[in-house]
Amino acid sequence: MTTGAFDFTDHSHRRYNPLTDSWVLVSPHRAKRPWLGQQEAPFKPDIPEYDEKCFLCPGNDRATGGKNPKYESTYIFQNDYAAVKTDQPSLKETGDKDSLKNRLFKVQSVRGNCFVICFSPKHNVTLPLMSKDDLVKVVGAWQKLYTDLSKQAIEEHKPFKYLQIFENKGTAMGCSNLHPHGQAWCLETVPSEVSREFKSFDKYKAANHTDLLADYVELEMQEKTRTVFENDTFLVVVPYWAVWPFETMVVAKTKIPNITSLNEAQKRDLASALKILTTKYDNLFETSFPYSMGIHQAPLNATKEELDHSWLHLHFYPPLLRSATVRKFLVGFELLGEPQRDLTAEQAAERLRKLDGEIHYTANL
């Protein structure tokens, strides 16, 4: 065994993720190896403010018929290619419930609805290029959708239980339309990743008589080595257990169960956090930075127990590793063993923290 002090910036170690009860392998010394992998040309879009061929621009025809109104702010409509539907035949159970097939090949019917959320009527902007006031409108649209679907679940008996709001930004994340937009999928079940977090929250509270994210926020605010930005309501950190190189989490400092619980000042704080973080991302490699972002919060019409284990937070998963052209892939050991990263969360946070919150590179968006 090699003697000497353990160096977290140079020696391999595993970090535990209490949200999902999983581990990530950290191998910081691998960041020193020469890169001989795939490199691509930086994506520098040259697109207009309005695109007559875009299915999301104001006043344009949509892919399956119909026409967008000439909207002037954030606009939400039902997804023309929804992943789940409200009305479909029920799934009937067949065969012996105790059979090997029913034991191993489990299946559930899932109903729901999906929505597209156009952040802006302008085709050539992204979140960091929008004004803070416009981002407040985006947060307000998320709130309204959450409230409306909660009412529909009760008043119209719609099969709505959980609203997963998310954004895939950039072609690297599979985004097929460059118009600034996100999505919201509303299901009659709580998705697996969220359910896994809820179970971890319950397990932690039963063992420690406190909220997992309350303790986590307190610890991060004490150490500050992984903090990227904070305001009165939200803390932006590279999680201690992050998998993606520049993964971040925007977490409420106090227990806020869902997005509708935000008051006007807190809405502005969330808008500010979104703008500053995504601007730092763009400045990191001087490119329109791709990511997948999602909001985790309480289910619709949550029970007291569900509210008790809900804590509003947002996950950002960006794929870029070394530059605008080099991406992180989960392959090999990461698919067959466990996730692995080549720089520590502290190193990633320091790089993001040093970047300012104003765009300083030339980008024709």
TrEMBL record:
GO terms for cellular component: cytoplasm. Pathway: Carbohydrate metabolism; galactose metabolism. It comes from the Eukaryota. Its EC number is 2.7.7.12. Residues 197-364 form the Galactose-1-phosphate uridyl transferase C-terminal domain. The active site is at H181 (tele-ump-histidine intermediate). UDP-alpha-D-glucose binds at residues 30-33, 63, 79-80, 168, 174-176, 183, 328-329, 333-334, 340. Gene3D superfamilies: HIT-like. It catalyses: alpha-D-galactose 1-phosphate + UDP-alpha-D-glucose = alpha-D-glucose 1-phosphate + UDP-alpha-D-galactose. Zn(2+) binds at C54, C57, H123, H179. PROSITE patterns: GAL_P_UDP_TRANSF_I. Signal peptide: none annotated. Fe cation binds at E197, H296, H313, H315. GO terms for biological process: galactose catabolic process via UDP-galactose, Leloir pathway. Binds 1 Fe cation per subunit. Binds 1 zinc ion per subunit. One of its GO terms (molecular function) is UDP-glucose:hexose-1-phosphate uridylyltransferase activity. Its cofactor is Fe cation; Zn(2+). Residues 5-191 form the Galactose-1-phosphate uridyl transferase N-terminal domain. Keywords: Carbohydrate metabolism, Galactose metabolism, Iron, Metal-binding, Nucleotidyltransferase, Transferase, Zinc. InterPro entries: GalP_UDPtransf1 (IPR001937), GalP_UDPtransf1_His-AS (IPR019779), GalP_Utransf_C (IPR005850), GalP_Utransf_N (IPR005849), HIT-like_sf (IPR036265). Belongs to the galactose-1-phosphate uridylyltransferase type 1 family. PANTHER family: GALACTOSE-1-PHOSPHATE URIDYLYLTRANSFERASE. This is Galactose-1-phosphate uridylyltransferase. The gene is KNAG0K01540.
